[in-house]
Amino acid sequence: MTSPTNPTRSNPDAPATPASGLPPRSHQDVTIRDTYELMCEVSGHFIKRDLDERRWKIVKRLAISFIVLLGLVMWVSLYAPMLGWTAEPTGKALGVVPIQGQIGGRGTANAEQVVPAIERACKSRATQAVVLRISSPGGSPTDAERIVGALEACRPSGPDAKAKPVIAVIEGVGASAGYLIAVHADETIASPFALVGSIGAVMRSVDAEEAAEKFGVRERVFASGPLKAGNSPLSSNTPAQDAMAQSLVDRMAELFIAQVKERRGDKLKPDPEMFTGRVWLGQDALGLGLIDGLSTFEALKQDRFEDLPVHEFRPTETLQERLGLSSLVHELGAGIASGLTRTEVQ
């Protein structure tokens, strides 16, 4: 019996074929494959390094952008308000302008800083009323007049113009030039324990002539007239110079008193001490007609503006002022010199 023919073994001399059916790998095939794998590995390394470099560049750019953004935010939050760049209220609001400290001088209650704040508050469409939070013992009458003039921005003229009420709230003390500002508001309110009044004027100077002579210091003055020089700390005034200084003080007091009478009108009650320069507690000032009511800012807000958020229009400040610092040279030098002779409404 003849067995069937096996086609795979038809040629006994042919080399054996692997069970997978693939021809055996030669040495050249192995070399090519290893080279290919090495090239893939090297390419992968370069690709990974390129991706890492790109990723690091992105991280660096993000970090730099974050630092720049942080610096911008700090600048806006710290430095921009010092220049008067403040965001306006987005909706209806109660505008508040703080007037704290001596009127004029190097504080924040000088006209250069308060006037722009009042104008922004009065011109803002969102502001429904303007509150002056006053805590000042007085100061420069010229600065006070400029601040009073800025209040006219809340009282525009014209048939379609709408005035905004201006309310002065005296906190702590509203005396002298501080009261001069408050009395020009549409309504003047004070805390029951606030000091109100000090209507009048004062001029102070230091006479250190005898002390200077003990140190051998004498002042030589060359003036074009007998009233040109005066109130020098190193020499005494002549009777004519004293009379002139007193007349200036009296005239400033007259102007101050006239404004108080004009603004308060029939509300003022006759009192022999009204214009002597004394101050009264808020409770007594109300009885004399110097103010219209007793309240604190918080109580006023709760009673009459409960639905309005507060937007503070702060005076501009320098970085030195915001940090509570002052120039040592100025305070010990020019500050002392300017304080030797100064004029206040008081």
Structure explained in plain terms:
This protein is an alpha/beta fold. It has 2 domains: 28-82; 91-205 and 244-345, 2-enoyl-CoA Hydratase, Chain A, domain 1, CATH 3.90.226.10. The chain is built from 10 helices and 10 strands. Strand 1 (93-100), helix 2 and strand 2 (127-136) form a beta-alpha-beta unit.
Short description:
Helix content is 43%, strand content 15%. By secondary structure, it is of the alpha/beta class.
Strand content: 15-25%
CATH architecture tag of the largest domain: Alpha-Beta Complex
Radius of gyration: 42 Å
Would you tell me which CATH topology of the largest domain applies? 2-enoyl-CoA Hydratase, Chain A, domain 1
**Annotated CATH homologous superfamily of the largest domain:** 2-enoyl-CoA Hydratase, Chain A, domain 1
Shape: elongated
User: Strand-and-helix sequence, N→C?
Assistant: HEHEHEHEEEHHEHEHEHHE
Report the mean per-residue pLDDT as an integer: 82
Count of DSSP H/I helices: 10
Instruction: Pick out the low-confidence regions.
Output: 326-330
**Any idea of the CATH class of the largest domain?**
Alpha Beta
